[in-house]
Specification:
The chain is an alpha/beta fold. The chain contains five helices and five strands.
Length: 117
Amino acid sequence: MSKKILYVDDEYPNRMTFQITYRGDLEVLLASSADEGLSILQGSSGINHVISDMRMPGKNGLEFIKEAKVNHPDIKYCLLTGFEITPEIQDALNNGTIQEYFQKPFDREKILSFVSE
């Protein structure tokens, strides 16, 4: 398991589903909020990718990613959301804030492909 990924989602069932889905393929670290995600990034090395839910209490996924990129610019970031792409998400794709956008329910193979790049 050479790829270490951080998955940030405020909903426990989503975090557990993600972890179970990728068990054996990826080393998955979980965070239940943007602030917890930032703490994990500060305290862990070797994280290659971050996937964040968009809608969360406090900071949304894009706000979290923008903050995380300040200290961790080499990580690849993407959003996973149950909603259609918004102008805000499209702008983040266009300007390189995020590298990818996935809709829930997530496609296991598409995310594995993103992480393998």
